[in-house]
Amino acid sequence: MPRKQAAGPRGGGDLSSHGPTTRKRAREADDEDTKGKEDKETKPPPSKKQETKPATSGEDPIKHKVDILLSKYGTLPLADLGLPDPSSPTPENVLALVYNAMLTSARISHELAHKSVKCLIEAGYQDIETLRKSTWEERTEVLTKGGYTRYREKTATGMGELADFVTEKYDSDLNNLLKKADSSPPKIRTLLKEIKGIGNVGLDIFCDTAQHIWPCLAPFIDPRSMKTAQQCGLGDDVEKLWETVGKDPEKMCRLAAALTTVRLEKKEKEFAPSSD
Question: Whole-model pTM?
Fold first, then answer.
C-alpha cells in the first residue's frame, strides 16, 4: 500500500496546495501584521503643545518672558517691506506707518491689510511726491492688488487728501507735525486725528509702531495688546514693562509688535502662567 503523506502543522502547510484566493488572503494578513509592528515602532509619541520654559531660580519671570517675546516675535514694524532703514525717522517711514495705521485699523484681515501696505510701498507711495502725482485710478489699482477691495475707493480718495494735507500743512514731512506738537503724545494724537481714515484704533496702532522713531511716544502698548500682556502673565503696568526693556524705545516698539502678533495669531497659551 502506498504510504500516506504526513499532514502539515495545524494552521500552516504549503500555500501552493491551496487556491489563489487563500494565498492572497494569507499574504494580506502577513502584510497587515508587519505594518502594525512597524507603526508601533516608528509612530512618534503624541506631540505636546509648545510652552515657554519657566524662568530659572532667581531670574525675573517677567523679564524672562519679555526676552522670549522679543526673540520670537519682536520684529520692527514694516521691517519686511523693503524700506531702506525702518528704524530711522525719515519722512518716508513716518508716512508708511500712517498707511499702516489707516489700513490695519479697518475691518479687514490683518494679512490683507499688511499685503496692501506692502503694495503701497512697492508703488513708492511712501514718497510724498510720488503719492501727490498719482491718480485716483492708480491708487485704486494698487489697493486692489493688495486685496484691499472692500474700502479701496474710499481709501484711494483719502490718500489723495493725505498728500495735500501733508504737503500744505507740514511741508511734505510729517516730522514737522512732531515739532508742532512739541513732542507731546496727546498733542500728536490730536493732530494726527485730522488725517481722514485715522480714528482712535488707528492712533493706537500708530503709537505702537512709531515709538522707536518718535521716542516721545514711548512707552506705549495699545489696550488690546495690554490685555494680551495680562494673559501672558506680564501684568498691566506699562511702566514696569518699560523698565524691563531698559527704557529702550526700540525694544518697547518690538515688544508691542510681539504682543500684537501673539494676539492676532492666538499664541497666548505659549506664555500663559502655569496652572500647576
Answer: 0.78
